[in-house]
Amino acid sequence: MKEEKKLIEAALFISARPMSLEELRTLTGIGALGYLQSVVNELKKDYENSAIDISESDGKYEMRVKSPYSEKVKQFAQDVEISKSALRTLAYLSKHDGMLKSDLVKKIGTQVYQDVHELLESGFVKAQKAGRSAKLTLTEKFKKYFVQQSPAQNAQDEAQSTLFNESA
């Protein structure tokens, strides 16, 4: 396996987002996009009979688990990384849970569409059709990742747990 192919494979494996040929060009130092494309295609072919897939969308490549396997192994996935823009949108949504996407666009701007897509993919928000828009609500996954209990609540939970264990 060529060194640049290994480097591309490692980048796609570790990246939390799809990568463009331009990014792979910068990474490898290969100037010829045609050659770089052939290396990516060769790598895609290497994974044809694997549980892993290298897919292309809008000129960007990503490595992911093929659908028949993803449902069975998703519990082992590591923490999700999200972009700064999506994180800002998520922060705004956390203060306005149950907000319409159309209202969010009016408040923040059109980049919200990409942010909401990313947040839906990561499982931090869910969308429910509401007329011509969608109502965005926070998920349990969001609460597990971002909502912390106060020290008083932690002490109360600990006391309840101790009481429950003693009575059992």
Query: Which CATH class of the largest domain?
Result: Mainly Alpha
Task: Please summarize the sheet with the most strands.
Answer: 3 strands, antiparallel
The total count of helices amounts to 9
Question: What is the percent of helical residues?
Answer: 55-70%
Read across the widest sheet, the strand sequence of neighbours is 1-3-2
Number of strands: 6
Poorly predicted regions are 159-168
- Gyration radius, rounded: 21 Å
Distance between the termini: 60 Å
Brief summary of the model shown:
The chain is α+β, with helices and mostly antiparallel strands. The protein has helices at about 5-15, 20-30, 35-45, 65-75, 85-95, 100-110, 110-120, 140-145, 150-165; strands at about 20, 50-55, 60-65, 100, 125-130, 135-140.
Q: What does the model show?
A:
It is a single chain. The protein is α+β, with helices and mostly antiparallel strands and 168 residues long. The chain has 2 domains: 3-73, Winged helix-like DNA-binding domain superfamily/Winged helix DNA-binding domain (Arc Repressor Mutant, subunit A, Orthogonal Bundle); 84-146, Arc Repressor Mutant, subunit A (Orthogonal Bundle), CATH 1.10.10. It has 9 helices and 6 strands; from the N terminus they run αβααββααβααββαα. The chain has helices at residues 3-14, 21-28, 33-46, 67-73, 84-95, 101-108, 112-122, 140-146, 151-167; strands at residues 19-20, 52-57, 60-65, 99-100, 125-130, 133-138. The strands form 2 sheets. A 3-stranded antiparallel sheet has the order 1-3-2. Strands 4-6-5 form a 3-stranded antiparallel sheet. Helix 1 (3-14) crosses helix 3 (33-46) and helix 5 packs across helix 7. The longest helix has 17 residues, at 151-167. The radius of gyration is 21 Å and the shape is elongated. The termini are far apart. 13% of the residues are buried.
